[in-house]
Amino acid sequence: MRTPRPSPASAEDLHARLAARITALEDRVRRLEARLALEARKPPLVRTRASASAATVRTARPRPRCPGCTLELPRGRRGESCVWCGFMFAAVTRRRASAPKAPRKQR
Ligand SMILES: [Zn+2]
């Protein structure tokens, strides 16, 4: 029986190429396994820290709210009164030593 196979030279070449490729892949797998073992040994710091910080950013430090209208105050410009309803924060925040002797109204 005749089997239609390629010339022995190209078959050898193919074999050699495949062998080289297999060797390279085996080497790669070995390296990856070594790396994986290293990674598994140490605690997963990076991922948990990233997710934790993302979670804390959302929940941490709620914006101050106006005691009058309970709306969140815009960041950055917090004056003496609410920008939404004009509620005077001094009315609820601790008053200064309750000393109305010195007239401090300036407007
Ligand atoms: Zn308000």
Oligomer: single chain
Spans of at least 5 consecutive residues whose pLDDT stays below 50 are none
- How much beta, percentage-wise? under 5%
- Distance between the amino and carboxyl termini: 111 Å
* Most strands sheet: none
- Work out the number of β strands: 0
Q: What is the arithmetic mean of pLDDT?
A: 77
Radius of gyration: 36 Å
- The structure class reads mainly alpha
Gross geometry = rod-shaped
Domains (count):
2
Helix and strand run: HH
Q: Helicity level, as a percent range?
A: 40-55%
Bound compounds, each kind once, are: zinc ion
The number of distinct helices, counting runs of at least 4 residues, comes to 2
Coiled coil: 15-42
Biased composition (Low complexity): 46-59
Region (Disordered): 45-65
Keywords: Coiled coil
Can you characterise this structure?
There is one protein chain. The longest helix has 34 residues, at 8-41. The model has no long low-confidence stretch (mean pLDDT 77). It is rod-shaped, with a radius of gyration of 36 Å. With 107 residues, the protein is mostly helical. The protein has 2 helices and no strands. It has helices at residues 8-41, 45-59. Bound molecules: zinc ion. The site of zinc ion has 8 residues, from loops. Residues 45-65 are annotated as: Disordered. Keywords: Coiled coil. Residues 46-59 have a biased composition (Low complexity).
